[in-house]
Amino acid sequence: MHIDKATEAELRAALADLHEQYDALAAKNLNLDLTRGKPSAAQVALSDALDGILDGNYRAADGSDARNYGGLEGLPEARALFAEVLGTAPEETLVGGNSSLTLMYQVMDFALREGLRGADSAWGNRAQVKFLCPVPGYDRHFSVCEYLGIEMIPVRLLDSGPDMDQVEALVAADADIKGIWCVPRFSNPTGCVYSAETVKRLAGLPQVASASFIVMWDNAYAVHTLQDDAPALASIAAHARELGTMDGIFQFGSTSKITFAGAGVGFVGSSERNLAAFRAHLAFQTIGPDKVNQLRHVRFLKDSETLNAHMSRHAALLKPRFDAVLGTLERELAGSGMGNWTTPQGGYFVSFDALPGLASEIVALAGNVGVKLTPAGATFPYGKDPDNRNIRLSPSFPAQDDVQASVDVFVLCVKIASIKQRLSR
Ligand SMILES: Cc1ncc(COP(=O)(O)O)c(C=O)c1O
């Protein structure tokens, strides 16, 4: 039934039936959660061999003892391994502690307060600093900006990545804009993969923008495919090298969703000049990262072939959960006029756009019968979705049956909210 083609009587009958199903669900006292983009227990268990893998051998390839202080830029073999993920050279790669978000925060804080090229280049010298935020996007990027007092300007995220016409026009016209957040492969939450043309234009952005502009390239899902034929991502480093813009690109990644989300390895790639400046800034905070964990990761993940084989074991666990969500949305809502959703080929999320004005009501309806959804607005700067329509679904963590039960409740709530809205017009 398409919501705009049904008669009022049909809509009222459908709504009565849906309310009956909803009341029956309320009696079940469900306690389900689709909010968390976390790997499941079975996924983290895929990397349990990390524990004990060193077996008393703490020597790194250069003969140094990984247990001791030092090596602020990370173990050489870890830099080489993760450089492959980012498409950088090992010298353009710094491997840190467990979180890439920490590295992103540190780069932003450094550029804002101290300046990538010395005090004169600090963004904070300006009365106002702004950042472009493709929407919908990752809430923690937005909270870093909000916390640091950086004004966020939303830009459209298309299937091909940020709307580059809009982005280029904005940065050319406003010198307060000092960067853009990007999740280029299997973006959070839409799952889109930036097109080759978009990657090239983003690599060229520092030439169009004001001084000290940076592209924050958070490639959190660089190797997180759900199927073998998932689209590849063009190399921003290759384009940046060609254009001479490496100083304007910071790439990030981590093994949070490869090995252990709470005990993985985070890394950052940029020009050697940027990394030298960043390293000097880090030296005030630490003598060195956890190199023992880096060594474990190198021995466990070995090379890109082993890494990819490991990722296909993740995909085998994730794919049925995504299929449950996508299959149910398709069966229950396709052609209904009650919403649109993305069909990601990797990453951790499905992005659902309800009819305008309904996201918060759908989230509340689901919450009232025990199904937690990511709060409406979370995918927009300041938590404000101007159309109140985007909802991020995260099927990775719950058990398969719970994913199915949750998405069944979700579609019921979408239908109730949509039909109620239609009838009230
Ligand atoms: C786009 C994106 N970046 C970064 C992170 C967090 O990365 P890390 O665990 O390395 O700090 C997440 C986690 O959900 C994410 O979705």
Provide tags for this entry.
425 residues; alpha/beta; Aspartate Aminotransferase, domain 1; Aspartate Aminotransferase, domain 2; 2 domains; eight-stranded mixed beta sheet; 13 helices; 13 strands; globular; binds pyridoxal-5'-phosphate
Could you characterize the architecture of this molecule?
- The chain is an alpha/beta fold.
- The protein folds into two domains: 8-43 and 308-424, Aspartate Aminotransferase, domain 1, CATH 3.90.1150; 58-303, Aspartate Aminotransferase, domain 2 (3-Layer(aba) Sandwich), CATH 3.40.640.10.
- Helix content is 42%, strand content 13%.
- The chain has helices at residues 8-26, 41-45, 76-86, 100-113, 139-148, 164-173, 196-208, 236-243, 272-282, 291-301, 304-333, 359-368, 400-424; strands at residues 32-33, 93-95, 130-135, 151-158, 161-162, 177-182, 214-218, 249-254, 266-269, 339-341, 350-354, 371-372, 390-393.
- A hairpin with an 8-residue loop joins strand 10 and strand 11.
- Helix 4 runs parallel beside helix 5 and helix 7 packs parallel to helix 8 (236-243).
- It is globular and about 75 Å long.
- The two termini are 18 Å apart.
- Pyridoxal-5'-phosphate is lined by residues 37, 99-101, 138, 183, 188, 218, 220, 254, 256, 266.
